[in-house]
Amino acid sequence: MVFTSVGALHDSLKGIIKIDAGPVKVVDPGALRATGIDSLIYNAAFNADATVREEARRLIKAAAGALGVRSASIQGLYEAMGRGECAGFTVPAINIRGLTYDTARAVFRAAKKHNSGAFIFEIAKSEIDYTGQRPSEYAAHCIAAAVKEGYTGPVFIQGDHFQVNAKRYAQDKTVEIEGLRKLIKEALDADFYNIDIDASTVVDLTKTDVTEEQRPNFEITALLTEYIRSREPKGVTVSVGGEIGEVGGKNSTEPELRAFMDGFNAALPKGRKGISKISIQTGTSHGGVPLPDGTVAKVKVDFDTIERLTKVARGYGLSGVVQHGASTLPDDAFDIFPKRGTAEVHLATGFQNMIYDSAAFPPELKKEIYAHLLSKHADERKPSDTEEQFIYKTRKKGFGPFKERIWNIDAGRKAAIGAELEDRFEMLFGKLNAVDTVGAVRKWVK
Question: 47 with 106, same domain?
């Protein structure tokens, strides 16, 4: 139901949520989970009135907090990993581009089956734009999904690849950095308490000295880390990540990691908390490499690099290294990550592919989305691209324009897609050994 005013929204929740001058109280948790939260999140995402949208988002967070669900920083757990007091699993960080509420629900169902508490929902700077999901909306989806599935505990929401655009940075450094500050502020205001800064795009490989290569990277990362520390809420230490190797480039090295960390620590003001993890390049690429028939080429991850650089990273007190572009890897790769000490893996495109390729996804809607891509994004098609390659690379951009249409597909079809996703998340939690982690989260996370 779409509400025409805040008053109408409040009236719909009578007997479910108590809304007055004091803290929001959940009067009927069963009714909230059965219908109330569905209504709230739909209006939080799609109501045409910004005031109603914001109030729906506020009520989702307030009601969730009353039920023991709150956005949190994973910092404490990662510090324990860095000290060697917590180990043996890799944290999955999941980017959701479309069907967000239903996909997040599938994650929570899988987590509950595995007694898992250490997993992250994230959205990249680029994804925020092309999926039409600003941080406040994305956070509302994740928190609402936890309420719907009866999950309690901290929910980790992350800004992924808050990335420096190298071209714009070369044109005007001040404007580019200010844009990132604004995005960081927006994310913090939406309770994103985990943020990955990516200035690896401005590493200068023309320099012969590795420190000078990394200098723009570690100086910008330190600058933005300091900005985060100056704005993080009282009592919260945001988990900040850095990156030394741009995904899709050459594999990262130990000297690069040491140069980055030494430079970063020197550039960060004394007394400020630094980063908790470091992303590296090991041979993968975001979304995988599409072949002419639209399938994805097999990629071999350099696990030796992961193991070596994790040891170096932990020498600096970090949780370890982060693997990007992992969702399209073969299944037999995932159980190697925890064995080699990988702190976190980022997973995105594989879930997007499952949604589009599911037999339950409406074929006519998919046909309409693909026609839109062929028309509106024709300038992005390379002369060598087959239609299948082009569609594979651009269909992520269909989630924004068709967001509400995808949300409103038949409930039975959505349930079928959700079940498929849940099975996949169950497999990934198991392979990454991200099971029975609720105890560790309770111990180390505020």
Answer: no
Predicted local confidence at residue 328, as pLDDT: 73
CB atoms within 10 A of CB 4: 11
pLDDT, one tens digit per residue, over 300-327 is 688 999 999 999 999 999 999 999 877 7
| Whole-angstrom distance, CA of residue 321 vs CA of residue 341 | 8
Quick one: pLDDT at residue 286?
45
Instruction: Identify whether residues 109 and 176 lie together within a single domain.
Output: yes
Q: What is the pLDDT of residue 326?
A: 78
Let me know whether 147 and 266 are in one domain: yes
Residues in contact with 232: Cβ distance below 8 Å, sequence separation at least 6, in sequence order: 188, 193, 238
Alpha helices (H) along 125-172: 125-130, 135-148, 166-171
SS3 state at 160 = strand
Q: Tell me how many domains the chain contains.
A: 2
* Exposure b/e, 388-414, CB count within 10 A at least 16 = b: ebbbbbbbbbbbbbbbeebbebeeeeb
The β-bridge partners of 290 are 296
Token code pair at residue 34: 């059965």
Look at residues 66, 94, 115 and tell me which one is the last residue of a structural domain.
66
**pLDDT computed for residue 291 by the predictor:** 47
In angstroms, the CA 110 to CA 296 distance is 26
Full residue range of the structural domain in which residue 345 is found: 70-354+413-444
Q: Based on the fold, state whether residues 59 and 94 are members of the same structural domain.
A: no
User: Is residue 287 pLDDT above 80, yes or no?
Assistant: no
